[in-house]
C-alpha cells in the first residue's frame, strides 16, 4: 500500500500536476462543491497530503478543498528556494490555476504547512484572497527556536537543528530514509491508543516512510528546515521589529500533550496576531499527539466547520 494516495482512497478527488512559474509542478488533489471558500489543506513533516485522508470524507459534502503536496517533499517539484514565502506563493498559484482568483481561501496548515500559512497571512497580499486560517500544532518559528534554551525542548525537537544542517541528507541516507522516518513517526505520535490506531490506518507509516526513502524528498525537506533556521527567522524578526503581525482571523489548534507540554501556546500567539483580528487557541487533550488530523479527525473536522462557518464567507 506504499504506492497508495488520496485518489486511491477517494475516487471523488481529482489529481492535478500544475505547471507553475518556477518551471516545476505542484501536485494537488481537489474536490469542488461549485461554490463557497476553498479549504487549502497543507501537510507537514515527515508526511504528505495523505495525512488528510480521514478529514476529507468528513468535509467534502459541504466544502471545496485543495490539498497540495508541499513543494520539495518528493511529489511536487523542488522549489527554487525553500523559504515559506516562495513555497506559499507556489501553492496559491496552483490553487488559483484550478479555482481562479475570485474564490476565497481558508488556509488550514499542519506543522510545516502551518508555518507556510503563517508567512502568507503576515504578508496578506490581496491577490492571495486568504480570509482566515487554522494552524495546527505550531508556535511561530522564532518562538520554537527560543524554546531550545530548555534542555527538554532541545531533546524533544532535536530534529530542527539537525535537519537544517547541510550534512543532514547524507547522514539520513546512511541511516536509511525509510528507517529514519518510521522511527520519527513512532516517536511523535500520541499516547491515546485509539488515536494511535487511527494514525496507522491505510498503511500510513509505510506510505510516509517509503516516500522519505527518496533522496529528492530528503534533500527538499531538509532545505525546508534550513530555510526555517535562516531566511524564515530573519523575516519574522523583521516583522516583529516593524510591527507586522497576522491580521486575519486565526484559530490555533494544538496537542496538549505535545506542543502544549513545551509551550504556553495561549500566551505566545497573541504576540504575533494583531489585536484587531480574532485569535482562538484550542488545546486538544486526552493524549492525542502531534498528528491531530490523523489521530482525532472528527474533532479537527468539527473545529474546521465551526471556524469556516464564521470566517469563510
From TrEMBL:
GO molecular function: hydrolase activity
InterPro entries linked to this entry: AB_hydrolase_1 (IPR000073), AB_hydrolase_fold (IPR029058), Epox_hydrolase-like (IPR000639)
UniProt keyword Manganese, yes or no: no
AB hydrolase-1 domain location: 37-138
Key words of the record: Hydrolase
Protein's UniProt keywords contain Hydrolase: yes
Source organism, top-level taxon: Eukaryota
Family of the protein in this entry: Belongs to the AB hydrolase superfamily. Epoxide hydrolase family.
Protein name: AB hydrolase-1 domain-containing protein
Amino acid at each position: 500500500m506504499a504506492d497508495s494516495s488520496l485518489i486511491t482512497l477517494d475516487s471523488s478527488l481529482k489529481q492535478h500536476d500544475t505547471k507553475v512559474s518556477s518551471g516545476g509542478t505542484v501536485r494537488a488533489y481537489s474536490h469542488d462543491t461549485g461554490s463557497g471558500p476553498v479549504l487549502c489543506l497543507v501537510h507537514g513533516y515527515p508526511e504528505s497530503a495523505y495525512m488528510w485522508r480521514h478529514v476529507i470524507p468528513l468535509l467534502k459534502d459541504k466544502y471545496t478543498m485543495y490539498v497540495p503536496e508541499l513543494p520539495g517533499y518528493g511529489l511536487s517539484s523542488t522549489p527554487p528556494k525553500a523559504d515559506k514565502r516562495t513555497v506559499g506563493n507556489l501553492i496559491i498559484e496552483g490553487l488559483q490555476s484550478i479555482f481562479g482568483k475570485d474564490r476565497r481561501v481558508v488556509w488550514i496548515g499542519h506543522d510545516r504547512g502551518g508555518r507556510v500559512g503563517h508567512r502568507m497571512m503576515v504578508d496578506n497580499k490581496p491577490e492571495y484572497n486568504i480570509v482566515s486560517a487554522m494552524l495546527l500544532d505550531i508556535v511561530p518559528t522564532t518562538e520554537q527556536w527560543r524554546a531550545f534554551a530548555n534542555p527538554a525542548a532541545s531533546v524533544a525537537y532535536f530534529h530542527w537543528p539537525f535537519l537544517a544542517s547541510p550534512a543532514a541528507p547524507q547522514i539520513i541516507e546512511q541511516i536509511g530514509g525509510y528507517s529514519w522516518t518510521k522511527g520519527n513517526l513512532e516517536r511523535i505520535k500520541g499516547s491515546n491508543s485509539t488515536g494511535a490506531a487511527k494514525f496507522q490506518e491505510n498503511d500510513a507509516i509505510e506510505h510516509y516512510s517509503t516516500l522519505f526513502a527518496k533522496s529528492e524528498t530528503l534533500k527538499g525537506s531538509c532545505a525546508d528546515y534550513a530555510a526555517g533556521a535562516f531566511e524564515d527567522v530573519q523575516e519574522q524578526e523583521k516583522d516583529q521589529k516593524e510591527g507586522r503581525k497576522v491580521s486575519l482571523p486565526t484559530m490555533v489548534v494544538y496537542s496538549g500533550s505535545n506542543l502544549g507540554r513545551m509551550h504556553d501556546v495561549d500566551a505566545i500567539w497573541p504576540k504575533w496576531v494583531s489585536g484587531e483580528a480574532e485569535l482562538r487557541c484550542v488545546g486538544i487533550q486526552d493524549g492525542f499527539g502531534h498528528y491531530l488530523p490523523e489521530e482525532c479527525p472528527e474533532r479537527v473536522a468539527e473545529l474546521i466547520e465551526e471556524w469556516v462557518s464564521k470566517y469563510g464567507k
